[in-house]
């Protein structure tokens, strides 16, 4: 029997915030001729913490009509992000860098990671410790991590205020019908599909497709599929709480020094603290496990990290979450996007990336303005793979630790569930390293070969050391010389991150 074709001439997005407005803005822009409505409750508070993104977000901004950073960054308190800096994850006092730059390949299979491992194993004095990999092959290490310079290439993302970002998207989406109202009930038809949403003041609202962006409540999906299975990640990810604060800059000198162009993830006694510098303030918070530390103790640890004097009088926001996802993200005529679909802890900034992937894959499925069961199945398959790739990348941040100094880290080290498919993937990486081939780069993945290699090197993963011939060694010598020249030039010409933003992006604001 052929699949039933369901025409899509109208879409109703339920829920505001960054996920809702990203969905409405993108779908209204890309699906010309489709009526897009967003309804959000005037009484539901939004979180509005500082949020980090990955370079993937730049595709989104281009597609909705904002290729120029200056057109939107000042309205979102945004700054640049060139990677993630880790401290205390493998052992206390340890550091490593996850850059957004690309790996340099010497041929189809050999990249600079192979070269560094070989030279390190040969006892080359310049490659004695893993820090030399980042310093030698990635100018961003010296420029951004050590000297807080502005981005030097297009491989960057942003730090932004999530609530201001939602406000900007709302103001920039004149094609979206915006309704501020409370949804009272969800009416289902005889097939269990959504027939209409009944609102407090606007009555019945109908559409061909409904997008649930109601956050952890997943209001629509729980009506359409009350028995839909939740796939928990808790055996692999122990953190389930966060406390966030907004730290003010002291003065101009503090902005110049503290407005770092990267996220810092600092492992603590029962989790980790993020540092996300926005233009007007620093967004920071402690992601932790309530099984190992109380909410009050976690907040005290966060405030001590920044200094009690600096955080005196600063209000905190406490958040509870559970990690996992619904078994399906699209059921009948309802699609859950963002937190409504699932959640993976904030490490490596997956939040808005998951939202973006859900929206863009949905838009591609609706290119012909209809859907059938096969499209729904394909969509769910893509989202499953995307979530799983993120989950498998986050787990080794914890499972490969050698820390044994607190109860939390002992549990992480010994009790984290490492799924069989992740163990198999790590064995491939052990033998061949993460490459464009072993990573399957043609797939819709969030993390690239450089991401995996930086993580595994940073966590002291034991690779099989490759053999390199004379041709490869000569090539890497030439590459290192080029990198040094590039770095010398940039160090002389690239401005401080804050000063660049002040003089070029926020000028006149």
List the helices and strands and how they pair.
Blueprint: E1 6-7, E2 10-14, H1 17-30, E3 35-40, E4 50-52, H2 57-63, E5 79-81, E6 83-87, E7 95-99, H3 112-121, H4 131-137, H5 139-146, E8 157-161, H6 162-171, E9 176-180, E10 183-188, E11 194-199, E12 203-205, E13 209-212, H7 219-224, E14 230-232, E15 241-248, H8 252-258, E16 263-268, E17 271-277, E18 281-288, H9 295-306, H10 308-311, E19 316-320, E20 324-326, E21 330-331, E22 334-336, E23 342-343, H11 351-365, E24 370-371, H12 373-399, H13 407-415, H14 420-432, H15 449-458, H16 470-493, H17 497-505
Helix pairs in contact: 1-6, 1-11, 4-5, 11-12
List the defining traits of the structure above:
509 residues, FAD/NAD(P)-binding domain, D-Amino Acid Oxidase, Chain A, domain 2, 3 domains, seven-stranded mixed sheet, globular
Helix segment tally: 17
Strand portion: 15-25%
For this structure, the CATH topology of the largest domain is FAD/NAD(P)-binding domain
If classified by CATH, what would the architecture of the largest domain be?
Answer: 3-Layer(bba) Sandwich
Number of domains: 3
CATH class of the largest domain: Alpha Beta
Distance between the termini: 60 Å
Rounded radius of gyration (Å): 23 Å
**Structural classification:** alpha+beta
- The pLDDT mean sits at 95
